[in-house]
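Shipment paperwork, digital attachment
Item: protein structure file
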Amino acid sequence: MREGCQILVKGGRPRPGSSKKMKRIGLLGGGQLARMLALRGHSLGLEMHVLSESAYDPAALVVKHHHLGNPNEELSVRKFLKSVDIATFESEFLDSDLLSNVSSYTKTPIFPHPDLMGLIQDRLNQKELLILNRLPTAKFSLIHSVADAETALKVFDGKYILKQRRFGYDGYGTFVIDGKKALKVVCEKIESDDSGFIAEEFVPFKRELAMMIARSRSGEVRSLPLVETFQENSRCLWVKGPTHSKQSAPLTKSLQKFLANIKYVGCMGVELFETRKGLLINELAPRVHNSGHYSLDALREDQFTLHLKAILDLPFGQVEQNSKGFAMLNLLGEHTRLPKWTLPKDVNFHWYGKNENRVGRKMGHLNALGSSGNQALKKLVLARKSFDI
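Attachment content:
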C-alpha cells in the first residue's frame, strides 16, 4: 500500500480525502540540496523540517521548522527523528552507523538507508559493490602505505588517480600521480590519513557524462536523460543535454537492476566516463546531485520531486522534456565581495541564499531551455556576464 501525501489547508480543516496531519519530512543537513528539496516539498504539500547547525543555512531560510543541531551528533539526531515521520539526507558523508542506530531506536525510517550510505561513502566499498553487480568501472588497487602507492606506479604504467576513500568531493581528496615527484608531495598525507586511499587507473576519457536514477520503495523506477558535464578546477561548471551514447541504454537497464538488488530508495547520481571502449562508472552519489539541477526547469518532474516521492512511495510523474535541449550553469564565487547581478532574460535563476561569497563556492545556478543542449548552454554563457559573484 502506498503512503499518501497528507495535506492540511488553512484554518486546520483537511481537504476531502486527506488526513488531519501533514506528512513531516526531515532533511539532515541545511545546504543547497536540502534547500531545493524543501522548496519542492512545499509544492507537494509536505511539512518540511531541517536539522542543521545554523539558522542561516540555505535550507533553514526556506522552512518554518528548523532544528538547530548537528546531523552527526546522536542527541540532535534522536530529537530530530522523533519530530518527523520520515527523513533523508543531502550529503553521504554523515555517520552512517549513528543514523542507522538512531533510526532503529526512534522507528523513523531514513532513505536511502544509512547502511547503503555507509557502503557508498567509502570509495573502496563502492568499487567492490560495482564489481559485484557487474557494472563497468576503472581498475583500482587498495593503498595502505607509501610502499603500496609506489607499487601502483608500476601496476598502472606510471600514472594513476589517488583517491581518498572517504570525504572526497569536488576534487578534494583526489590527486593525479604521474611519477615519483607527484607521489612525494602526498606521501605524508597517505601515512597520516586514517580513511585510507585507492589507486585508480588513469582513464583517457572523451567526455564526462552523468545520469540520475530514482527508485521508490515499491520498486517504481525513473531514469533521467543522459547529460554531458564539464568540470573546471574539479568543480562542475556546466551540464547540457540530452546527449547520446550507444552504451547508455544497456547501462541504464543494468543500473536499474542494481538499485533493485540493493533495495535502494531515492535518487542516485551516476558519474560516467565515455571512453573508446565504452562507458565507465566513475562514482556514485546516493542523493540528489548537481548534474540533475537542470531538471528543475527542463523536465515535467525534477529530481527533487522524484526523490521525495520515492521515499514516500508516491507514484512518479512523467519525466518528459519541456524542450529539445537544456543546460545548467553553476554560479561559482570568484571573489569575496557582495554579489551583484541583473537578471537576464530567457534563463531560470536559482539562488542558494548563502550568506558568504567565496572563490569556487557554489552560490546558485542558471537553467535554460533551447533547440539543443549547445544552444541552451550558449544562452547561459551569455547570461553569466550579468553576474558579479
